[in-house]
């Protein structure tokens, strides 16, 4: 029997009307009742409105939690992790957090991160075909090395950086001259960097009110890239907001620990593509939208 890991995507792959099918589905409408204030955005909102992190975080998490209702009950799910926001769906799957508490938290998380991002004119940039050390060297050789920050290590060939919009634009020009590919991210702030430290500290106060249970399956932390081993999840999740996401380490450690099949719950299939490129022996299933999830 396969040992299955479930991974959850992060912001950046959202699409208009995401969650519309789940909104009134008999299996999932109770989940969407917890975010009823976002119904108009789900049904009629523009992609721009959806993509504001204060809206996107609860809407995307509801989508991911809803998807869990369609996983087969006899599947041997032994491990989980998520990309940034996706970590909350992994906590729900692991039994550490109720779906109601998870949705409550990301409403506050999204609002705090949105408020903080509005204080700064920032953007994020994915650098392709370079690993963490190579990106660190590129930053060190840039004209303003103290203005660019690594925010996500998604794979040995994809590292995301963030900073002030002007400096990121200059850094992108520098990368172009070095013939290095980069892609701007569809997000609204310099997440997982020092720009979000104030939001993370405020969020810690919210987390004090939440009870976490011990995970029932292996759960891998974005903050460290390692399996959970008793850390204070309030501290982990607050620091998570302003520290780099170590997604690739999560996936590698999950596979090293015996996972041989991975299901990605999107939206999108960004993580599946990373796994297929780097772990060819692992079977990967991508569930990118409601239709694919329900059909399964």
TrEMBL record:
Keywords annotated in UniProt: Acyltransferase, Transferase
EC numbers, comma separated: 2.3.1.39
Organism phylogeny: Bacteria, Bacillati, Bacillota, Tissierellia, Tissierellales
Keyword Transferase applies: yes
Biological processes per GO annotation: fatty acid biosynthetic process
Catalytic residues (positions): 84, 192
Catalytic activity: holo-[ACP] + malonyl-CoA = malonyl-[ACP] + CoA
Descriptive protein name: Malonyl CoA-acyl carrier protein transacylase
InterPro entries: Ac_transferase_dom_sf, Acyl_transferase_dom, Acyl_Trfase/lysoPLipase, Mal-CoA-ACP_Trans/PKS_FabD, Malonyl_CoA-ACP_transAc, Malonyl_transacylase_ACP-bd
Domain (Malonyl-CoA:ACP transacylase (MAT)): residue spans on this chain: 7-291
GO molecular function terms listed in the Swiss-Prot or TrEMBL record: [acyl-carrier-protein] S-malonyltransferase activity
Family named by the database record: Belongs to the fabD family.
Pfam family, one: Acyl_transf_1
């Amino acid at each position: 029997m396969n040992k299955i890991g479930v991974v959850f995507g992060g912001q950046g792959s959202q699409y208009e009307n995401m969650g519309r099918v789940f909104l009134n589905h008999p299996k999932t409408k109770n989940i969407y009742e917890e975010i009823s204030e976002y119904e108009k955005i789900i049904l009629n909102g523009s992609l721009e409105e959806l993509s504001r992190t204060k809206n996107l975080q609860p809407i995307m998490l509801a989508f991911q939690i809803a998807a869990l209702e369609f996983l087969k009950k006899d599947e041997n799910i032994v491990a989980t992790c998520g990309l940034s926001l996706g970590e909350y769906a992994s906590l729900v799957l692991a039994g550490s957090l109720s779906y109601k508490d998870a949705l409550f938290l990301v409403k506050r998380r999204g609002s705090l991160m949105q408020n903080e991002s509005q204080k700064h004119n920032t953007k994020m940039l994915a650098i392709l075909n370079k690993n963490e050390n190579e990106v660190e060297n590129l930053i060190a050789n840039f004209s303003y090395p103290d203005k660019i920050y690594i925010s996500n290590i998604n794979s040995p060939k994809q590292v995301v950086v963030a900073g002030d919009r002007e400096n990121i634009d200059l850094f992108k020009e520098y990368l172009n001259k070095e013939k290095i590919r980069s892609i701007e991210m569809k997000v609204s702030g310099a997440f997982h960097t020092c720009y979000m430290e104030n939001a993370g500290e405020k969020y810690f106060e919210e987390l004090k009110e939440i009870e976490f249970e011990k995970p029932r399956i292996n759960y891998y932390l974005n903050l460290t890239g390692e399996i959970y081993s008793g850390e204070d999840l309030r501290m982990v999740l607050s620091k998570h907001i302003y520290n780099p996401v170590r997604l690739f380490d999560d996936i590698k450690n999950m596979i090293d620990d015996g996972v041989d099949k991975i299901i990605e719950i999107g939206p999108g299939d960004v993580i599946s593509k990373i796994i297929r490129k780097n772990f060819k022996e692992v079977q990967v299933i991508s569930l990118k939208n409601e239709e694919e999830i329900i059909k399964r």
